[in-house]
Amino acid sequence: MASPEVADVAVIGGGPAGLAAAAEAKAAGAGRVIMIERDERVGGILNQQVHDGFGTKVFKEALTGPEYSAIYEDRVNDRDVETWLKTTVTQLTKDRVLTVRSQKGIQTIEAGSVVLAMGCRERTRGAIGTPGTRPAGVFTAGAVQYYMNVSNLAVGRKVVILGSGDIGLIMARRLTLEGAEVVCVAEILPQPSGIAANLVRCLEDFGIPLYLSTTVVEIHGKERVTGITLAEVGPKMGEKKGTRRYIECDTLLLSVGLIPETELAVDLSLSTNPITNGAIVDDSFRTSVPGIFSCGNVLQVHDVVDYATLEAEKTGAAAATWAMTGVLPEPTINITAGAGLRYALPAKISGEAAVDFTMRPWKEEHGKAVVFRSGGEVLRRLKMPHMEPAGMIRVRVGQGRFGHVVDNEITVSVEVAE
Ligand SMILES: Cc1cc2nc3c(=O)[nH]c(=O)nc-3n(C[C@H](O)[C@H](O)[C@H](O)COP(=O)(O)OP(=O)(O)OC[C@H]3O[C@@H](n4cnc5c(N)ncnc54)[C@H](O)[C@@H]3O)c2cc1C
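Above: query sequence and flavin-adenine dinucleotide SMILES. Below: predicted holo structure tokens.
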């Protein structure tokens, strides 16, 4: 094996998070930055997202996925980041040695700091245990998106979608526009998982029915899907007797959640958050292993790419500072997600700079506020007319507010708005 390459910052993944982190690491003073991407081009999942709606926060315009990622690809190239394409990181050690595989063979990189930006993957049929035979015609939403938008291939004519998250909803519209019949969307939860706006513009506008508290209990067909059986579920997700109905279709599209791509980090024994399944990080996006940082969808699933980018820019800058100086502000203040919130990120902060907190509520709320308290006193209160689990909340808390923190503890909760 060739002698190891040495980099100040190694970024794993060339999606929007990796691109932004690598560009910003360079801007923050890192010498050699290597970004490793297993695909033949950068851009990650954005390459297959031809709908618009990307960039509305950062650029104040609605770009397509490829248009958005091209801006950051240019930045990476302008700033002389080394991009290693068709190269997969297969191993990462706690002392930041990466093993990578490509057509050149196996190489190692010794990095001053490492940014994990591997995105997430889709849950498959196996992950949710759908019963029935194993015919062709069962796809994940991302696979269908790739076939349609990148390879220009149709996957089927009569489609049932399982899962009402934004991905499932967007695919319902896309399949309809491409001439397929989307018979219905089934959702196991009693409420939709996607944002309200997508329910209107992707289902209601096209007359596609949404069946809540409903799931697929059987897939029919030998060579190819010929139909599926849906059934209603009770509060404990058990099938309700007498509610089965057969639906003829040739395709079942699964849009049943995303899982952070964390296999590489398993050997690192990173502290992780059981809700996000991503690493626990501080406000420099440092994980529990020194010199290893995390951002983008591998850290928490983002519904808006702009927030993934902003998070990644901070991560890249912090990774560069750590690699070049070995010093970052020490996180001394603990953040706890209180009533009404599934999680709040980061989990620890230094209090030496403003922090953009991200969080998700457990359920849809109206007329409430996100409130940061320490020692019972309010540090920051932000009214939120509408909150829903599908929409990530992002709240900036200015550095001045942290001067009032008691016992290094802050709790953030959903409260009645005053
Ligand atoms: C269907 C869908 C619709 C969306 N619609 C919108 C929208 O309308 N507007 C919006 O703002 N946002 C949207 N988003 C969200 C946005 O796409 C994500 O927030 C963003 O792509 C996350 O970027 P990322 O870089 O973390 O992950 P990714 O884009 O997944 O990139 C991760 C990259 O890491 C690479 N990688 C992984 N492991 C390795 C390894 N071991 N070695 C080398 N490379 C590796 C992968 O190949 C990939 O290129 C949507 C997301 C989905 C799934």
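The chain has three domains: 5-121+259-328, 124-256, 335-416.
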